[in-house]
Structure formats: structure tokens, C-alpha cells
Design goal:
- This protein is an all-alpha fold.
- Helix content is about 75%, strand content about 0%.
- The chain is built from nine helices and no strands.
- Helix 1 crosses helix 2.
- The longest helix is centred in the N-terminal third of the chain and has 38 residues.
- It is elongated.
- It starts with a helix and ends in a 5-residue tail after the last helix.
Length: about 200
């Protein structure tokens, strides 16, 4: 049995650690729910709908994110991080580097759709938007470069495609989604990727 001293030590450390982990999981679930709602309804979607999707009260959302802008920025960063972290995993698990690149670009398209309306939501804070764009480039360009390099080294694509050029091309193909919900950019993105193939 633990001594009184040990019990005190455990009660002093374990609960905060567990509480922090729970709070982090709750926040991640909230951000995932907000991202899902933003995809279907844009960043102006009612907060109560996001709360219902996340299974939390509206007070919980406002406690984490006092303003809609705070929530939009957090979702944006969350999506950037998820996209960045997926790259190495896909490269390790996919059947080939090109398959990993194709799967990652699919996630990138999801991200571009998710951030629909971000500029409008952030227009009152130009410096904040600039900081987000810098974060986007810092996190995602190296991942895209690594995937392109791996596919080129495997002889699956022609070498020399700059990662920012590919990302810009995919982004441009996603623009039409803003004005036409029936437009699916994935078909044209798939054509773009096929154009990279060797042979």
C-alpha cells in the first residue's frame, strides 16, 4: 500500500496531468467539429451548431475561444498541423511515394475547403492573417517538398516540381468551389497529379 506521503504525491501530480490531457482532447474534438461545420456551412455557421456537433455547451466554446475569430484561427492552425503531420505517416504507410503524395494532396484539398471564408473572418486583422499565411507556408511547404522528392527518387514523377507551385496550382483549382457548391475540384486535381507522372 502507498504511504501517506506517496498518496499525497500522487494526488498532487496525477489529477492535473489527467485534467490537462482531457482538456486537450476536448479542445481537439471541438476544433474537429468546428472544421466539419465550416466545410458545410462556412465560418459564419452558428456557434450553437458547432457546440452540438462537438457535444459541448456553448459556454465551453466561448471559454476556449472568446471570439469567432479566435475559433477560426484555431481551426486553421489545427488543420495546418494535421495536414503537416499526415505527410510523414502517409509516406511510411502508403504503397508508394506517389500514392502518399496523392493522399496528401487530397487532405490538402480538404484543408483548402475547410478554410473557406477565413479571409473574410480575419479581414479586420491583416497582421493576424499574414501570420497565419506564414505559418501555412512554414509547416506545409517542407512536407510537400519531401513527398515530391520521394516520388521523384522512386522514378514515379518527373523531378523539379517546386512544392509551392504544386500547392498554388491545387489552390487555384479549389477556388471555383466558393461560388459553385456542386463543383468538385478533386477531378481536376487528379488530372494535375497525373500530369506529373513519368512515362
Amino acid at each position: 500500500m502507498p504511504t501517506a506521503g506517496q498518496s499525497g504525491n500522487q494526488s498532487g501530480k496525477t489529477p492535473p496531468r489527467g485534467k490537462r490531457a482531457d482538456a486537450q482532447r476536448n479542445e481537439q474534438a471541438l476544433l474537429a467539429a468546428a472544421a466539419a461545420v465550416f466545410v458545410t456551412s462556412g465560418v459564419d455557421a452558428p456557434i450553437r451548431r458547432i457546440a452540438a456537433e462537438a457535444g459541448v455547451g456553448m459556454g465551453t466554446i466561448y471559454r476556449h475561444f472568446p471570439t469567432r475569430s479566435d475559433l477560426v484561427v484555431a481551426v486553421y492552425r489545427h488543420q495546418v498541423d494535421a495536414c503537416a503531420e499526415a505527410g510523414p505517416t502517409l509516406l511510411a504507410e502508403a504503397d508508394s511515394p506517389f500514392a502518399a503524395l496523392r493522399a496528401w494532396v487530397d487532405l490538402f484539398v480538404d484543408f483548402l475547403v475547410t478554410k473557406h471564408g477565413l479571409a473574410k473572418a480575419m479581414q479586420s486583422d491583416g497582421s493576424g492573417f499574414d501570420a497565419l499565411h506564414a505559418y501555412f507556408l512554414e509547416r506545409l511547404v517542407p512536407v510537400c517538398a519531401r513527398l515530391l522528392d520521394a516520388a521523384a527518387e522512386a522514378g514515379e514523377i518527373e523531378p523539379g516540381t517546386p512544392p509551392q507551385e504544386l500547392m498554388r496550382g491545387v489552390g487555384n483549382l479549389c477556388i471555383g468551389r466558393d461560388s459553385d457548391p456542386d463543383y468538385d475540384p478533386r477531378r481536376l486535381v487528379a488530372l494535375l497529379l497525373r500530369g506529373l507522372r513519368t512515362g
